[in-house]
Amino acid sequence: MLKKLLAITLGILALLAQAQAVRTLFEPAWRIDPLVVFFGWQLLTAVLTATFVRSVLPEHYHGRTGAFWHSLAISLFMPVGGLLLFLGVMAISVLFPAPKELARSGAVDRPEFVTYLVSRVTHGAGARLRARLRNTQGTSEDRVAALVSVQALPSRATGEIMRDLLADPVEEIRLLAYGIIDGVEKQIMQRIFDARTQRDRAENDDDRADANHRLAELYWELIYQNLVRGEVYRFTMERVERFAREALAHRESDAVMWYLLGRCALMRHDPEQAEQCLQRAEFHQFPADRLVPWLAEVAFLKHQYGRVGQMLAGLGNGTATPMLQPVMRFWTR
What's the predicted TM-score (pTM) here? Predict the structure, then answer.
């Protein structure tokens, strides 16, 4: 009630100040220039109008300060008209109030994830482990235990957080994370070394194509498991593309190699090249349900948003991964 009385008082004072400002233009000239007196009254009118506008805005409205300066400028440089504009807007809101149903809605704070409550969650063991690892406020023993347990999860799901843990303030966690990453990398690199040896010893085109196919898949495994970053990431992608193209030079019908080339092109933000490679993979009988999400991404990068929903609509809920299902609901609703 007090707020309403204050707003009404400010509105009346703004009207009186505006009337006095206009009145000074018709009074006899004094020793002070009438325009200077008018500008002083107009400035007071603008301040009162801006304060009036700010007072009637809801408390949770984030643009109250901006509205104050906006209405101040309009009232100052549009004498009479600026004040009437804002008073008219307020009068309309009083004469034509919003439906009562809308009054039930309210603003809520943005939800935040609280890591110390993660132990109460009874599902999603992988998410709980990752949250325990990221919780730098937790005990070192709990985080080390989580790091040991996380080895049971696929490297694809833990590669990124393992890289982040290399900069952890706890030395024991840094060493464990380095050991886990190093062990996975060594396994893949040993298989790459064996595949290179097989490639060097190949006696015919078929054996060489098999070796190149294997090398492309192994280098792709480094990317897929989030084991490489920066320049090493770009170098690894170049290796994937090189061996995939060499495999296709001997066996053009290798759908998996066309698929890997399409994925690499998407990572380089080249939708045209990606679409060509993915279509070739589809032509050579690569599973369509695995291609559709990437073809939809190609359409998105080419700003063909209408095709995205059409493509994803063809996927059944049973074939979509849990990560893809929210995307499908968004584009097909």
Answer: 0.57
